[in-house]
Structure formats: structure tokens, C-alpha cells
Amino acid sequence: MSLEKPRPRPRRSGIESEEERTWVGFYRRVGRDPAIATEVMAQLESDPEMKRTHLALYLCCKESLRQHKARQTRNKRIGQFVRWLCHGLFVRPLHSLQKGLRHGSDIAVECLPEVVKEPAVAQVRRLARETEFNTAHTAFEQQAAQPTGEPLPASTEAQASPSAKTTRSAA
Question: Region Disordered: what ranges (predicted)?
Fold first, then answer.
């Protein structure tokens, strides 16, 4: 133990102790909230005496703002990467698929086999123009329209001349 008496601490008033607690609270909060750090730093810059007294608080505010800016920059880079990745994974393949489908229909039509002209189609058209066929067709239509209980008239083909039969069989 030393022979000298310890110096008595000066007693602080209630206002001074509250002021000290508030400054300590600022030390804690400026690290978490950049808005408070900005306000405290502006206040300290406006009063040089207060800035000298609380230089550590001023430096904490500057560090907090620097970290906040770095965090925003990092988040911006991450956001750009995520947008780029989503564009590459979802948007670009969708556009490629749409483009392929747009041009794919033309390719699919070209891949279809060529239409072969059926010779029977021309024969049917030619027969439809002949009068003998028209009379036989109308007789068939009339026969189909009659109820089944009535007797059917004789075939119109049997009534046709024998010369017409030979021309038809020759064709």
C-alpha cells in the first residue's frame, strides 16, 4: 500500500452523469445506425471543442459511415449479379425458345411430305360434269329421300342407252 492518500474523485452532478451516459450511448448506437452517425458527426464538426473532447466518437462515426457505404456497394454488386444470373437462367432461354418456335413452324412445314396429286380427283371432277352422272346422282338422291316403306323405282342406269354404257366402261 502506498503512503500517499488516493485523490478523492470529484463528485459529479446528476446532469453531468446523464450527459456522460448519453455520450456512451452514442458510442454504442453510431456503429449500428448510419443516420445517427451522420447527425453526431455533423454536430461534432460544428463545434471544434466538442470534437476534440469526443474525438473517438467522431472517428467511430466516420468508420460507421465508411462501413455503411461499403455494405451498400457490396449489396449493389450482389444485386447486379443476381439480376444477371436470373436473366441468363430464365429470360435468355425463354427468348431463344420463342425465336425457335417462331422459325420452327416454317421448318416443320418444309419437313412435311409433298402433296401427291391423286389421279382419282381429276376423274371425279370430269365425271361430275357429265350429264349421265348428274341424272344418276339426282336419282340416287331421290331414292335416299324416299321412306323405306315405298317401292323403289327402276334404276336409272337400266333406263340409260346401251351406247352410254359402253362409253363409260371405255373411259
Answer: 133-171
Alpha-helical (H) ranges within the chain are: 14-30, 34-46, 48-53, 55-86, 92-111, 119-129, 131-145, 156-159, 162-170
Residue 26: CB atoms within 10 A of its CB come to 20
Write out the E strands in the chain. none
40: in domain: yes
Domain span including residue 42: 16-105
* Among 159, 119, 114, residue whose Cα is nearest residue 136: 159
Distance CA 152, CA 7 (A): 142
Let me know the angle formed at the C-alpha of 53 by 52 and 59, rounded to the nearest 5 degrees. 65
How many domains would you assign to the chain?
1
Q: How many CB atoms lie within 10 A of CB 59?
A: 11
Residue 29 domain-assigned (yes or no): yes
Q: In this structure, is residue 8 part of a structural domain?
A: no
Q: Is residue 117 part of a domain?
A: no
pLDDT per residue of the chain (171 residues) written in tens, 0 to 9: 556 776 666 666 788 888 888 888 988 899 899 999 999 999 999 999 999 999 999 999 999 999 999 999 999 999 999 999 999 999 999 999 888 888 888 888 888 888 777 888 888 888 888 888 889 888 988 988 887 655 555 554 455 555 545 545 544
